[in-house]
Design brief:
- The complex is a heterotrimer of chains A (89), B (97) and C (312).
- Chain A has one domain.
- Chain A is built from four helices and no strands.
- Helices cover 85% and strands 0% of the residues of chain A.
- By secondary structure, chain C is mainly α.
- Chain C has twelve helices and two strands, in the order ααααααααβααααβ.
- In chain C, helix 1 runs antiparallel to helix 2.
- Chain C is globular, with a radius of gyration of 22 Å.
- The termini of chain C are far apart.
- The mean pLDDT of chain C is 86.
- Classes of the chains: A mainly alpha (89), B mainly alpha (97), C mainly alpha (312).
Chain lengths: 89, 97, 312
């Protein structure tokens, strides 16, 4: 079971990495600001799987914190993008 | 009993991983930012929910199970609201593609 | 399987790091940095260090990421106009120096003696006397409390340094521009939902620090992030930095810390010594104002120097 959960965590991480490549090579700002969402969900999934596989129950708290901060960073990105657009306009 | 629980976990986590894969494929293949956002938030959050469901069978204790569900609900809440913001910003930053 | 996962994680860390350094656009580099913090937090979990993972996710990735996003947004305008790139020879020599440093660090880590001298058994043996269950918190607040006290003072000095970046006529004003809630109202809605939850989670992480990974720094970071989120949504306004209550809030933590420290002379014979029966209570008395102070300090650090004149 621990092995299976580790494999699943690795798989989720690889999908996050592939998604990241797409996001970072995308043409506009709109792609970048999605990155925080990608990390939020994918990273939390990998963390929760790791918490069970490695028997580190505190990692669930790390997932909780990560969820909140992913939302915070997303809002910061949106504010940053709209601010820089207003500056250029 | 534990064999049945393990089986349920494997099924749920595999389904969750499949949805993560679907989300990434959508991210790679969809033509514009808004539909990519759609793939990202919907598929990935569903994948996370299935992963949490699978882990619920493995975790010991009610408090840990409640925390897992809490993490998923928080992520769902944050994603649902923040994706609205991202969509407006994506639309406002103009059609690049 | 564990080895395979470790290899995947290491490759991911190296890949994200390489990408962050070579990114063209500052926003993209900041995204890479935040992702780097995330995979690093995963690595810490794999190394069975959840306290470090919590701190990395909260401060290293989340709060610093928010700070960098604000900074890169301000620099956007100047980015496209600067045409300087470092010369090839400069980049090559930088690469050579970095390679040497990495090789040296790798050699040191691989040459470490098998059984490093450690004080962990003594820490564990005396935990019951302090009344805490989390050895990391015991080290931070009891065994090496002086280090924590000095860290908090350094944070205050950094804040003073950031405030000194304001032009003279704006000294004492409010940081950041006034954020107006957009006509759509999605952003205030997001903040109204997330901030209460965030405050609860922050208090939970702080409180659980005595028995499980957590503590005042991580809890304070979440509280600070929630305050900044409320500010960005236009729900509250950043107070002018000359406000008396704000400055009292900022120094309350270190003031109480110093007070308990000096009282230690009377109670147990040394600076920051705790008498055995009251150790947990004293640590709690220090931690509560400390968390609030650090939250305020971190929030003001991210908000930046004053940009609006104080209304007098």
């Amino acid at each position: 079971m621990a092995d299976f959960l580790l494999a699943a965590a690795g798989f989720v991480l690889v999908t996050v990495a592939v998604g990241l490549v797409r996001i970072l090579s995308g043409p506009g700002d709109a792609d970048r600001i999605m990155a925080a969402q990608l990390f939020g969900t994918g990273g939390i999934a990998a963390l929760l799987l790791l918490a069970q596989a490695m028997s580190v129950p505190a990692a669930i708290d790390v997932g909780l914190v990560l969820g909140l901060l992913a939302a915070f960073v997303s809002v910061a990105f949106v504010k940053g993008v709209t601010r820089s657009q207003a500056d250029e306009a | 009993m534990s064999l049945a629980l393990n089986g349920l976990t494997i099924v749920a986590v595999c389904a969750g991983a499949f949805f993560f894969l679907a989300g990434t494929v959508g991210l790679l293949r969809f033509p514009d930012a808004l539909s990519r956002l759609h793939a990202l938030t919907k598929a990935d959050n569903l994948g996370l929910g299935l992963v949490v469901l699978g882990l619920l069978f493995q975790v010991g204790g009610v408090f840990a199970a409640l925390k897992l569900i809490g993490v998923w609900l928080l992520t769902l809440l944050a994603a649902a609201t923040v994706s609205q913001l991202l969509a407006r910003a994506a639309r406002a930053s103009g059609p690049h593609e | 399987m564990a080895l395979a996962f470790d290899i995947v994680l290491v490759l991911l860390i190296l890949g994200v790091a390489t990408w962050t350094i070579s990114a063209r656009d500052t926003f993209a580099a900041v995204v890479g940095f935040i992702g780097f913090g995330l995979v690093l937090a995963l690595a810490w979990v794999c190394l069975a260090a959840p306290d470090v993972a919590l701190t990395e996710a909260a401060i290293g990735s989340g709060l610093t990421g928010g700070l960098l996003v604000g900074a890169s947004a301000r620099l956007r305008r100047t980015e496209t106009t600067s045409g300087e790139t470092p010369s090839i020879s400069l980049r090559l020599s930088a690469g050579v120096v970095c390679t040497f440093i990495s090789a040296g660090l790798a050699a040191i880590v691989l040459e470490l003696p098998g059984k490093a001298p450690t004080l962990a058994p003594q820490v564990a043996a005396n935990l019951a006397m302090i009344g805490l269950d989390n050895p990391v918190t015991a080290v931070l607040m009891a065994y090496r409390a002086v280090d924590t006290l000095l860290e908090v003072v350094v944070l205050l000095l950094v804040l003073g340094g950031i405030w000194s970046l304001a032009p003279d006529h704006l000294w004492g004003g409010s940081p950041g521009s006034r954020h107006l809630a957009g006509p759509d109202g999605v952003l205030p809605f997001v903040a109204q939902l997330l901030v209460p939850v965030g405050i609860l989670v922050g208090i939970h992480i702080f409180w659980i620090g005595s028995v499980a990974p957590g503590g005042e720094f991580q809890g304070a970071t979440i509280l600070a992030a929630m305050w900044i989120l409320a500010t960005m949504a236009g729900l509250v306004d950043m107070p002018a930095v000359s406000r008396r209550w704000l400055r009292l809030l900022l120094v309350a933590g270190s003031a109480v810390f110093f007070a308990v420290g000096f009282a230690g002379f009377a109670m147990a014979g040394a600076f920051l010594a705790y008498p055995e029966a009251y150790a947990k209570l004293l640590i709690l008395i220090i931690e509560i104002p400390l968390t609030l102070s650090i939250a305020a300090t971190l929030a003001l650090l991210v908000a930046g120097p004053p940009e609006r004149a104080p209304q007098e």
